[in-house]
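Archive entry: two folds, one per protein. Generate the first.
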Amino acid sequence: MIEVIGIRFQQVGQIYYYAPEKEMYALNDKVIVALQDIRCIGTVVTPVQQMDRQDLPDEVKTIIRQANSQDLAQEATNAEDAIGALQIAKGKVRDRRLPMKLINAAYTLERNKLIFSFTAEGRIDFRELVKDLANVFHTRIELRQIGVRDEAKLLGGIGPCGRKLCCATFLGDFIPVSIKMAKDQGLSLNPTKISGLCGRLMCCLKYENEEYEQAKKEMPDRGKEVETPDGKGRVVGLDLLSRVVKVRLHDRQTAVEYDYEELVTK
């Protein structure tokens, strides 16, 4: 076991774990850490905790120090300059007519690298674009291709439910979602009904999926014959979360709803 602290580099993003050394850090403290080959400002998002080494990378780096006012001022300047850099880079992309969409730009803390995130249908030969950008910004340029879900996470927006996107507000990592989840929940399979702004299946399909799976195991399938307090019938509908079964009795035309506990299956 090893003591670690969880740190994020985006407001809603993956958590990276670092050793605190001797100094103690509080939640929301800004700290300087090494990420790959660069120094970054991160935010403490978990208290000190014990984790098994096998759940961590081979090398767990140590937090360098707490960020000071000069670091935070530099971070703010970098963020402001990155907005202008993104607009300039978009112009360069248009000039070269590259089939790519620039989404975000970010300077590293010490401005030794400028990172652009973009989306594209396939692979892009952007070598000449990198040269153009290096000549303008006089620093190392990195272009990162991201997916449409990452794009939605970066840009944010309002989902079909009328609330801010889950991925942009509290989901640190994307969770696997399948069309089977929509089927199990009895949702319309119309893509416009079950897709988010990114065009992929909505992340919220996962939230209640475990409850639906458990209910499906316990409750009778459609078409199954059951014994009700009013006689025998066949299941014609299910409300899985409420554990309510709709049954068409053999001697009646209209279906009757029963709690699952009232039924005896054959």
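Generate the second and append.
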Amino acid sequence: MCLGVPGKVVFIKEDIAEVDFGGIKREVSLLICPDVMEGDYVLVHVGFAIQRLEKEEALETLALFKEIERGYRESAEEDR
């Protein structure tokens, strides 16, 4: 199973982008998606932007991740 995480491109230098994942910034390769621009949302897997995303799709996915996290935390608290 693969997990791609959406993030927002905040800076590009050559073929490396700085991508913001909800406050955590990481360097990501743009070799697979060379036409990505600053401000775009991308789907990232193992350090590579593998697809450009529409903003709405990226934000919806991020909201689902937060919902999963919230459910996990609530479940962990109930187990205590």
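Annotation attached to the second fold: The first strand starts at residue 5 and ends at 13. The chain has a mean pLDDT of 93.
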